[in-house]
Design a protein that fits this description.
- The protein is globular, with a radius of gyration of 20 Å.
- The protein is an alpha/beta fold.
- It has a seven-stranded mixed sheet with strand order 3-2-1-4-5-7-6, with helices on both faces.
- The longest helix has 18 residues, at 59-76.
- The chain is 43% helix and 14% strand.
- It is built from twelve helices and seven strands.
- Helix 2 (37-46) packs parallel to helix 3 (59-76), helix 6 (152-163) packs across helix 7 (168-178) and helix 6 crosses helix 9 (207-217).
- The chain has helices spanning 13-20, 37-46, 59-76, 113-117, 143-149, 152-163, 168-178, 184-194, 207-217, 220-234, 248-263, 279-284, and strands spanning 27-30, 51-55, 82-86, 102-108, 235-245, 267-269, 292-298.
- The structure holds S-adenosylmethionine (SAM).
- S-adenosylmethionine (SAM) binds next to helix 2.
Amino acid sequence: MTNTSGRHVPVLFQEAIDFLRVRPGGTYVDCTLGLAGHAEGVVRLLGPTGRLIGFDRDPEALELARTRLERACSELGSQAPAVTLVGEAFSSIAGHVHPASVNGLLADFGVSSLQFDEAHRGFSFQADGPLDMRMDTRRGPTAAQVVNEADERELADLIYEYGEERRSRRIARAIVRGRPVATTGQLARIVAQAAPAMKQEHIHPATRTFQALRIYVNRELDEIRALLEAAPRLLKPSARLVVISFHSLEDRIAKDSLREGAHQGIWEILTRKPVTASEEEIDRNPRSRSAKLRAAERTAASF
Ligand SMILES: C[S@@+](CC[C@H](N)C(=O)[O-])C[C@H]1O[C@@H](n2cnc3c(N)ncnc32)[C@H](O)[C@@H]1O
């Protein structure tokens, strides 16, 4: 995410670092490197015997993260930790990380500023671009394929389910009539005409439809479920899990999974209510307004 001056700003940075309780010599996993703001914070605390393992399924993000972390490590010189980067979805984490080897795991879900601000990635209706929305640009389908190939019923259902959009049927009908839909601007216009902004609403009328398509294209909720299911086996006793979500569907999965784990004696929940951004952070970085951080500590119970 970027602030108004265009600089990348990680959300809830200090809170995430504090809850992770980064200790020199430990092994930490950043499941969502993005532009590596949080990851750099961790790397600077790890010392020469520590290790960071970072994931991002977006090849462009992974390369930017690599550059940033290499720069940080070269500044740290002999004090730099080991860094391993994995260009895969975090649902594959169990194939890359040994059981009971991790001291802290961070996941900051959602779209990075890199993805959102670049028109060619097709995430945003602010600038017209091809309707793509894939985080992992090596694998399909694109949002254009979904919008042009799904039947009206499927489209309505996914817009309702993942966008929590009550006017999904009307929107799906308009999309089907407006096919072929090739760009973000074209889709935003179709949605805005079919379901204009309501008086009391402050968001663009296409916001929920875009969110729905993005979640669907990237299987975002399945990814989060898979990660939260794998995490307890990977963490050492007393290790920390920190997740940051940006909308209610993500946060509900995190909340339910941690509660269920706490019930089974696997997690001790550290945030009875989710941690949110301060007024000052929201002023600096408006997107932090919707961020919710939840943290838990792994108990010694076997899984
Ligand atoms: C909100 S950004 C993270 C920002 C990061 N914390 C920082 O400080 O720059 C989320 C990143 O996670 C990646 N991502 C989202 N879901 C993923 C998944 N299932 N597997 C791997 N990477 C994922 C996205 O490609 C994006 O780059």
